[in-house]
Write a structure and sequence with these properties.
Elements lengths: L2 H23 L3 H16 L8 E6 L1 H11 L7 H13 L3 E4 L10 H13 L2 E8 L17 H7 L3 E3 L12 E3 L3 H6 L2 E4 L12 E2 L2 E4 L2 E4 L12 E4 L3 E4 L2 E4 L6 E2 L7 E4 H12 L17 E6 L7 E2 L7 E2 L1 H13 L8 H21 L3 H24 L7 H33 L5 H9 L1 H7 L3 E12 L2 H6 L3 H21 L3 E6 L2 E6 L8 H14 L1 H10 L8 E16 L4 E6 L1 H11 L8 E4 H7 L5 E7 L8 E6 L6
Parallel strand pairs: 1-14, 1-15, 2-3, 2-15, 3-6, 4-10, 21-23
Antiparallel strand pairs: 3-5, 7-13, 8-9, 10-11, 11-12, 16-17, 18-20, 18-21, 19-20, 21-22, 23-25, 24-25
Length: about 650
């Protein structure tokens, strides 16, 4: 396994562990709920609830209109008896109150509501089942049993399975309608909701348990009778022929509707007053609009304090949670909660696949486009899934994918900076700034060059004539000063022609063209550099003379073209980027022949073949080179400064 593969595995694993830890700690939940709400508002705001569902709202206008008749809220219960009479005239199938009548008011008002409930035979009242902390104030109330007749009438009769309830979290308190009222009710529904950790209401437990018995929430209550069979599974609740998907805590995500047939209770009472007067024409609300309907009664007025934040609106009448659930049941329009196994798998894909692609793709566009594409596809898929009534958690996947991308890009930035420094250190002393910039742009390819490559190059050797005699008779500091003056000028010329300075060997200079950066005209550049080096000797000698030197520099240069091995060669402690091979040996041999042929510059036939159409040369004949059977023809350019 390569180093980068190990790094990729380490980064992916770390991101996966961090994301899953944050996921199960609930740290990412708020952001995911924000995405959930955005999808709900986008896709469900225009959705209509079942036409069989109606809602009567106690709104601000109703409170003001009835203040002179019924007084301030809460109204006398006889008011509700009038409402039930109106709905009975219209032929409502069921009436469900999202209003608690747990305490007696006393007098005719309680009796009126009880008698109207009894006469209607289709009224469902509300109760609460909840968990409260133990305290001295409630110690005699908590855990008390419900009345036996209440349990026998309203709890489910046929239940298969049960919820896993963690000890210490059992429901321990309840509020039910006063006795006379529940005894004449058609049914009972639980109206308590628990908000999510950001305060909004999105889900409910369709069944509420108290001391081993189960009761429906208000939105399910009108579909329950003594023959209803309930099957509780780990991921669903079967009620009659409906399957309600639930999460591991028994919660069902309510599939909200933005539109429901809603009526102001003030308009209903105004219509009822006209009916009592015998005026049946032009009613504000005709009772027949409620024929065969399931009618929920709740509040939208601020003073009644039943406004709740939901995905649809920040101030939603709580009764609309019940109507949405009832409509879900009627239309079999259930929303499937997130599958945690799928979420974990998506985090795995996001962490490992994104990191791998970013680290190993050669093209920068793919490195950037792949994570963006992954995120776009997943978010689009989650939206389509939501349209098909399935919820997919988005934030864990987004977090793992983005984190994987950022860390991988960070790692690449760090390692590429190291590579740039490594390449720069490798070549900065050998090549010109222009060549170094080109090398850094393709540093990965040039890093391979350090390991060894066979390439075609042109090699140049130059040597100072008579230097040994000069150095023996000159103080060492003067020798160094002279060499530095000479080498500075020669190095500048070599780099000017994009050559690579290999080394200084005493008074000799070795350079080559064609590596590490490939150059098509490396032979021409080498010869032109050699000619300029010879021509620059006049300036060098003038400088040395001004410094008191009476020694005039003369040099010989040999140039050869051919295949050579290039790379970092040396020991573990000291490496030198250089070239070796027969091509190098021949260039050195040619430099040594310059005295013998009375020429300052000699090039091989291999170099000549590549420059003959651009630089005029003359032949100096053939030489026999050790290790070669065939003689090598040598040449010298015409336009050089022979000294």
């Amino acid at each position: 396994m390569t180093k980068k593969s190990i790094i990729s595995l380490f980064i992916s694993t770390a991101i996966f562990i961090i994301t899953i830890t944050l996921y199960y700690l609930g740290t990412l939940e708020r952001l995911d709920l924000f995405i959930y709400d955005a999808k709900t508002k986008l896709l469900r705001s225009d959705k209509e609830a079942s036409k069989k569902i109606k809602v009567i709202l106690i709104d601000e206008a109703s409170l003001k209109a009835l203040e002179g008749i019924a007084g301030r809220w809460p109204w006398p219960r006889a008011i509700w008896a009038d409402l039930l009479e109106f709905l009975s005239i219209g032929g409502a199938k069921a009436v469900l109150f999202d209003i608690l009548f747990t305490e007696r008011q006393g007098g005719i008002h309680d009796s009126a509501l009880v008698e109207a409930t009894k006469a209607s035979k289709n009224v469902y009242h509300s109760m609460m089942i909840l968990r409260e902390p133990e305290s001295e104030e409630y110690k005699f109330e908590l855990g008390r049993p419900m009345p036996e007749d209440f349990v026998s009438r309203f709890s489910f009769k046929k239940v298969q399975g049960s919820f896993r309830i963690k000890p210490g979290t059992e429901n321990n308190n309840y509020n039910i309608p006063f006795t006379d009222l529940y005894r004449v009710s058609k049914g009972i529904g639980v109206v308590e909701f628990t908000p999510d950790n950001n305060g909004a209401f999105r889900r409910t437990k369709p069944l509420r348990e108290y001391k081993g018995k189960y009761y429906p929430v208000l939105g399910i209550a009108p579909f329950i009778d003594d023959n209803t069979r309930v099957i509780i599974n780990k991921d669903s609740i079967a009620i009659n022929d409906r399957i309600l998907p639930i999460d591991k805590k028994g919660n069902y995500p309510i599939n909200m509707y933005g539109k429901v047939d809603a009526y102001s209770i003030g308009g209903i009472f105004a219509s009822m007053q006209r009916l009592k007067k015998g005026e049946v024409e032009d009613l504000i609300i005709n009772p027949e609009e409620f024929k065969d309907s399931i009618v929920f009664v709740g509040a939208s007025a601020v003073g009644v304090e039943d406004l709740k934040p939901t995905p649809i609106e920040t101030r939603t009448p709580g009764v609309l949670l019940h109507t949405s659930l009832a409509s879900n049941y009627l239309m079999n329009d259930f929303l499937k909660p997130p599958n945690k196994t799928f979420t974990v798998f998506s985090v795995l894909i996001g962490a490992f696949l994104t990191t791998h692609v970013v680290l190993f793709s050669r093209r920068f566009l793919i490195k950037v486009a792949f994570p963006i594409g992954m995120l776009s596809l997943y978010i689009a898929y989650s939206i389509v899934a939501f349209m098909m009534n399935s919820v997919f958690e988005v934030i864990p996947f987004v977090f793992s994918t983005l984190t994987g991308s950022f860390i991988s890009f960070g790692y690449l930035t760090f390692t590429e900076a190291m590579e740039r420094r490594k390449v720069s250190q490798l070549f900065t002393q050998y090549v010109s700034k222009e060549v170094l910039d080109e090398i850094l742009r393709h540093r990965k390819d040039y890093l391979k060059a350090g390991a060894g490559l066979k390439v075609e190059i042109t090699v140049l050797f130059s040597d100072i004539r008579g230097f040994t005699t000069f150095s023996e008779s000159t103080p060492p500091e003067r020798v160094v000063e002279m060499l530095n003056c000479y080498f500075s000028q020669m190095a500048e010329i070599i780099l000017k022609y994009n050559g690579t300075l290999d080394k200084y060997i005493g008074d000799a200079v070795m350079a080559f063209w064609g590596a590490p950066m490939p150059i098509d005209d490396h032979s021409e550049r080498a010869v032109l550099a050699a000619i300029e080096m010879l021509n620059a000797l006049d300036e060098v000698n003038k400088t040395l003379k001004s410094k008191g030197y009476d020694f005039e520099l003369r040099i010989g240069i040999g140039v050869n073209t051919g295949i050579a091995t290039i790379g970092n060669i040396g020991s573990e402690k000291k490496l030198n980027y250089t070239v070796v091979g027969d091509t190098v040996n021949l260039a050195s041999r040619l430099e040594g022949l310059t005295k013998e042929f009375n020429s300052n510059l000699i090039i091989s036939e291999y170099t000549y073949e590549r420059i003959k159409d651009k630089i005029t040369c003359k032949s100096l004949g053939n030489i026999k080179v050790k290790g070669r059977e065939k003689p090598v023809e040598i040449y010298t350019p015409d336009n050089q400064n022979n000294q």
